[in-house]
Design goal:
The complex is a heterodimer of chains A (341) and B (364). Chain A is an alpha+beta fold and 341 residues long. Chain A is 54% helix and 14% strand. Chain A has two domains: 91 residues, PH-domain like; 230 residues, no CATH class. Chain A is built from eleven helices and eleven strands. In chain A, helix 8 packs antiparallel against helix 9 and helix 10 packs antiparallel against helix 11. Chain B is α+β, with helices and mostly antiparallel strands. Chain B has a domain of 125 residues. Chain B has an eleven-stranded antiparallel sheet with strand order 1-11-10-9-8-7-6-5-4-3-2. In chain B, a hairpin with an 8-residue loop joins strand 9 and strand 10. The longest helix of chain B is centred in the last third of the chain and has 37 residues. The two termini of chain B are 33 Å apart. The chains are: A alpha+beta (341), B alpha+beta (364). At the A-B interface, strand 1, helix 2, helix 3, helix 8 and helix 9 of A face helix 1, helix 2 and strand 4 of B. Chain B: Keywords: Membrane, Transmembrane, Transmembrane helix. Chain B: InterPro entries: DUF898. Chain B: Pfam families: DUF898. Chain A: One of its GO terms (biological process) is proteolysis involved in protein catabolic process.
């Protein structure tokens, strides 16, 4: 006869695969478990499974034959398992769940750390990746983008052929001075919604809108704009920005992806906010590059500043804000920087 | 204990309301710890997080004093998820880089999905336990293909007039494919009531459309920082209109779809019986879900989650679950002791995870 009956837990026992409850008691005697149910005492054989601990949820012990003991006495069950040296699954989680404030602080700290880490890593990774992509593929991406823009945004140019040839020659002079390959060409389009603008597409075509040509008739000023775009191409900014935004998108959705459509709500604006800082840096770099390039190609040094001043005159609001979300720095700031001194 | 064996006298039908015993605070703590560990482990913990979340909701959902259980482990889910991610990745790469293969690959998806859906539903059913008896799903490949894929085409050709009919066919097929242990479910539902549910939904949608667009315009104008549309230039006005249309569609789907879902759930549960008793009498179910209240809860949940940047997610989840569970009652024809599990193992976790990751939800 076992002399000292150990701790017990009351519950219900369901024989294998049935819904018929039998009043039952689980006992730990001298480190071994036994189950009393339906007037029968049986030892609990090795290989039983214990359900994990969750606040307020009944605990279950499943025997190897499929019989299941269920108890509402969670703390008694945990204590009983401990006397037999069994690890209580979910115990750590349950304890963490009681320390809400600590968890909250850790969560905020970890998130900040991750965002900072990504802010350092993603631009570096994009820079590296952008320079691994062969120029032929980059050009293909740029051509693809142009086709898309032609369908949705641009319409064919109305500039006379002669004017186009003249501007292309000016562009080629800049391009050759910059040492960029002859595949980099100038394209003319009507900008419509983009108005007076110039766009450097990855790997090649620089698109100049008719509206820009109309706004800035002086060659020196136009050369400043085109050199700025060549600066983007030289540093592969377009490609880097594409890679950067997809890396951010992937990281963000990986984290908040599986819970509801929250990522859709948050990601768009957050990503724009995170990325706008880099785009503003890109613009400053391109301006600096343009100043050096126009000087080397023999254009007047005030060209870029004149062009930016002309652009500012068409601008209605928000030209100087250089707000958190805008992709370009404020125009006044850029004009200051571009003034020859 | 509450559930002692009852004397074997045939009692009158007894109503067992489903109860949810969890709390917002309890689930919030669990959710927060899960979030922390998922972030800290670069997402690996999310498999265990899923199990603990499911266990919390199942374990706090009680029928006749006994809780349900979600009986699997984080390891099983993690392995399933890993394979599912690999399958989806290979799939995306193939469709992205080999556009020529799109047609044959589309055929593979079309004919492979029913199989994946069946296995996924079966896994989810078999890990669901009540009183040591497991649920099961025994849908057939052919009927899943028919009801969820093939019949969509003729239904579109009728200008969606056949949609309520298809919905009833799906509800009946799914219900009757489920088992509790060896006991089969059966669905008797009047086709007219399904048509009535869809008609009410369309009317509600039309009624909602007007204020929804109004709210959308208001929101868009408010967000833009100005109050008068005239002061905007044509580009901005176009943007405002676009945002307004999106907001209108959003509010519409966020209320009208739950409104329909609640009606279908109620119709299905009210017509469902469960066999398997020794005397051949049937257990039945009732559901008193108010579709309007359900839709309101869904919409206000969405707003609360968006405004709180996700922090109110646990509150919203508990709120919806508590309301739904509280509206369901099981009417037992006799005591609930006579169910017997079929001896089956729960395979198909990969399919279940593919459905999870791809957002395929096939539910009553």
């Amino acid at each position: 006869m076992p002399s000292d009956p150990g701790p017990t837990v009351d519950g219900v026992f369901y024989p294998a695969g049935t819904s018929r409850p039998l009043a039952a008691t689980l006992t730990a005697t001298g480190g071994t478990l036994s189950l009393t149910a339906g007037g029968l005492i049986r030892p609990v054989p090795d290989g039983f499974r214990v359900s994990e601990r969750l606040t307020g949820v009944a605990r279950a012990l499943t025997l190897p034959d499929g019989g299941r003991f269920v108890t509402e006495d969670g703390s008694g069950f945990s204590a009983l398992l401990a006397t037999c040296g069994h690890r209580d699954r979910g115990g750590l989680m349950t304890r963490l769940e009681q320390r809400g404030r600590l968890v909250m602080v850790l969560l905020v700290a970890l998130t900040l750390l991750l965002v900072l880490g990504l802010r350092l890593m993603i631009p570096a990774a994009s820079h590296w990746l952008a320079h691994q992509i062969p120029p032929a593929i980059e050009r293909q991406i740029g051509r693809g983008t142009l086709t898309t823009l032609d369908h949705g945004l641009f319409s064919p140019t109305t500039l006379p052929e002669e004017e186009q040839r003249r501007l292309s020659a000016l562009f080629n002079r800049l391009r050759d001075t910059a040492g960029l390959p002859p595949e980099v060409t100038l394209e003319f389009r009507q900008g419509n919604r983009l108005k007076a603008n110039a766009v450097a597409l990855p790997g090649g075509p620089v698109v100049l809108t008719d509206e820009m040509v109309a706004l800035i008739p002086q060659d020196d000023a136009l050369a400043g704009i085109l050199a700025h775009e060549l600066g983007h191409l030289h540093a592969r900014h377009g490609l880097q920005q594409m890679i950067r935004s997809s890396l951010w998108l992937v990281s963000v959705t990986l984290y908040i992806g599986d819970d509801a459509g929250l990522s859709d709500l948050v990601s768009g604006s957050t990503l724009a906010l995170i990325d706008s800082g880099y785009s503003r840096d890109d613009e400053r770099d391109a301006d600096t590059y343009a100043l050096a390039l126009t000087a080397r190609a023999g254009f007047s040094p005030g060209g870029l500043a004149d062009a930016l001043t002309a652009l500012r005159s068409t601008c209605r609001t928000d030209c100087d804000s250089g707000s958190l979300l805008s992709t370009h720095p404020g125009l006044t700031e850029r004009i200051e920087q571009a003034r020859p001194r | 204990m509450t559930d002692l064996p009852t004397p074997p006298v045939s009692p009158p039908p007894m109503a067992h309301p489903l109860r949810f015993t969890g709390s917002t605070a309890g689930y919030f703590r669990l959710w927060l710890v899960n979030l922390l560990l998922s972030v800290a482990t670069l997402g690996v913990w999310s498999a265990w997080a899923k199990v603990r979340t499911k266990k919390y909701f199942y374990g706090h959902t009680r029928l006749a004093g006994s809780a349900f259980d979600y009986d699997t482990t984080g390891w099983v889910i993690l392995k399933g998820r890993a394979v599912a991610v690999a399958v989806i990745a290979v799939w995306s790469v193939l469709t992205g880089f080999a556009p020529l293969a799109a047609l044959p690959l589309g055929a593979v998806v079309f004919f492979g999905l029913p199989w994946i859906i069946n296995r996924g539903l079966r896994f989810n059913a078999r890990v669901t336990v009540w009183r040591n008896v497991r649920f099961d799903f025994q849908g057939s490949y052919g009927r899943t293909l028919l009801y969820f894929f093939v019949l969509i085409i003729p239904v579109y050709m009728t200008g969606l007039l056949g949609l309520p009919w298809l919905q009833r066919a799906r509800s009946r097929y799914l219900t009757e494919s489920y088992r509790f242990g060896t006991a089969p479910f059966h669905l008797t539902a009047d086709l007219g009531e399904f048509y009535a549910a869809y008609l009410r939904t369309v009317l509600a949608g039309v009624l909602m459309l007007i204020p929804a667009i109004g709210i959308g315009v208001g929101l868009a104008v408010g967000l833009d920082g100005s109050t008068v549309l005239d002061s905007l230039n044509s580009d901005q006005a176009a943007g405002v209109t676009l945002v307004a249309i999106y907001a209108g569609i959003f509010v519409l789907t966020a209320t009208v779809l739950p409104y329909l879902r609640a009606q279908i759930l109620a119709l299905t549960l009210n017509g469902t019986t469960l066999g398997g008793s020794a005397t051949g009498r049937l257990h039945r179910f009732s559901c008193t879900l108010s579709p309007v209240r359900y839709a309101w809860i869904c919409l206000s949940n969405l707003a609360a989650v968006a405004v709180s940047l996700g922090l109110l997610m646990p509150w919203a989840t508990v709120r919806l679950h508590r309301y739904t569970v509280g509206a369901i009652t099981a009417h037992a024809a006799e005591d609930l002791d006579g169910f017997v599990s079929a001896q089956e193992t729960a395979s198909g976790v990969i399919s279940s995870e593919i459905m999870d990751l791809e957002g395929i939800s096939v539910a009553l």
